[in-house]
Fold this sequence. Notes:
The chain has helices spanning 12-18, 48-58, 96-111, 135-143, and strands at residues 3-9, 29-30, 37-45, 70-80, 87-92, 124-129, 151-155, 157-163, 173-179. By secondary structure, it is of the alpha+beta class.
Amino acid sequence: MPRLFTAFEIPPDIAAQLTFFRGGLHGARWIEPEDYHLTLRFFGDIDTRSAEAIAVDLAETEHFSGGAPLRLELDEIGVFGGRQPRVLYARVKADPLLARLQATHETIARRNGLAPETRNFAAHVTLARLRGVSSAAVGAWLAERAFPLALSFEARRFALFSSRDSVGGGPYRIEAAYPFA
């Protein structure tokens, strides 16, 4: 069964700039820059028939932006998990078109029998996983890097990715790409 998700690829120049944040946090498991992405919807381990149906349904969203690329802005570094930090990330600034695309992918997942996503969509690029890293260490690390990112790029497509069954999932493989044309 494939483990699938939809996401935007992060351009190499943006990924290279995000690598400057790597290091300085003992116990962090840093994501490889070629695996950076912005997840729209995680489908999980699904059967081949469902995977094929989802891939077909995703083609419906190719024209949602009227053919224009979607401008995405990474605006700050943050952490998920509060007192028990789990993920260090680059936040993607809220965008109504991005939220609409993600909601469409959620609808496609439900239409194909998948359970609803229970967490609110928080657009981000995972930089590191933080198992066993203290909130004090993360707070100190963030305090040293408390400045706006102001990184942006144009997403001309999203992709259906597959991942291996492991913690962190990478490396990822593009199964299908959906340009905004």
